[in-house]
Design goal:
This protein is an alpha+beta fold and 91 residues long. It has one domain: 2-Layer Sandwich (Ybab, Chain: A), CATH 3.30.1310. Helices cover 45% and strands 19% of the residues. Helix 1 packs antiparallel against helix 2. It is elongated.
Length: 91
């Protein structure tokens, strides 16, 4: 595994999240415009960004495992990422 990280941002780029390949959150950036939103909306946006960035990393791991013929049935799929990206786009 590498030190690779994955990012996601809200459609307006007011909230940005970076997640390590291992799955932990490396950083969250909240622009001033986002700070005017209700706290629950900020939290939902952070979680949606985190989900997308995390799933991008999981798909990299999945591809590596598939390349070594290791079963990946329980790992996230492209559809999981597409669903998370759609949820993020709808914010």
């Amino acid at each position: 595994m590498t030190e690779e990280s994955f990012t996601a941002a809200t459609p307006d780029n007011a909230i940005f999240v970076r997640v390590a390949l291992a799955g932990h959150t490396l950083g969250v950036q909240i622009e001033p415009a986002a700070m005017k939103r209700p706290a629950i909306d900020i939290a939902r946006s952070i979680m949606a960004c985190n989900d997308v960035a995390y799933l991008r990393g999981q798909l990299v791991i999945r591809a590596e495992l598939e390349g070594r013929s290791i079963p990946v049935d329980d790992m996230p799929t492209e559809q999981d990422l597409a669903d998370a990206e759609r949820k993020l786009a709808e914010l």
